[in-house]
What does this fold into?
Amino acid sequence: MSSARLVDRRPEIDPADLVAAMVPPPRFDAVRFETYLPNPEEPSQAAAVEAGQAFCGRVLVGPPRKSWIGGLFGGKPAVVAKPGLYLDGGFGVGKTHLLASVWHAVPGPKAYGTFVELTHLVGALGFAGAVRSLSGHRLLAIDEFELDDPGDTTMVTRLLQELTSAGVFVTATSNTLPDKLGEGRFAAEEFLREIQAMSAKFTVVRVDGPDYRHRGLPPAPDPVAPSELDALAAARPGSTVDDFGDLCAHLATLHPSRYGRLLDGVSAVHLRGLHAVPDQDVALRVVVLADRMYDRAIPVVVSGQPLSELFTAEMLRGGYRKKYLRAVSRLVALSRDSAAADR
It folds into this structure.
């Protein structure tokens, strides 16, 4: 009996279910501040835990208010605290763990999603509909925050303005400081006012350190032979087997917000004939798929080229370098998970 294929799936998402589905993915169901293990050699990590806990305390108190005491004596009113917490740092330092910990520590209503899922929500509900759906929330948590084009920049600036004005707190993770968003991807300097207005809403907390996924671990497992790939998939119920090129073509037919649903019920992903992606559009889709596989802790097995060769040297020099490196880091970790399970 042949294994199932991802390319045969066309998941659909009812717009009415989008907000209700905005919760942390399975990998982060049980994480809390107490389960985050700061690297003792990186003091910023312990400091980030404290900052996250303090931010939760502010959320519980309520939206930031202006103090008019100073105005009574001739001074200007001062905002007590910013409505946003922005966790900036490299991949593999536990930012998503901290983001999910904030979400778990705050009572609802609340929403959690990736930046891609947030932009899709706006596309599905319309801008006004998205504002109505989220403005009654206490917290919005955004993972993998990034600005890839001018449309995102304008939309997100307006959305965060509307939500924070309604009293919603926002916490986000990113590999890029908020005032540097979009650099190397589009003419970000033309949208400097929007980017600066958005970054002003966040208190930025830096999280430093090496990628914990590879701390003291051996390199990624070598690709397997095609015949071994099929045998491994057949031995694991719920597996899928796809030709890598066919899967890349299939991803182009789906909105990236559907990639998580594409993986529902999948126990392991097997990719035949892995090769370097041909262009940036394909590369960015593969990044989103890798993120959704990692969110769900789905092991991956490949034949063909090693996962380390998924993105070309030219791509790794471009504006999406951090995204590509994060994807490789996560895929390598998932390939180790598969190798360990098959021993």
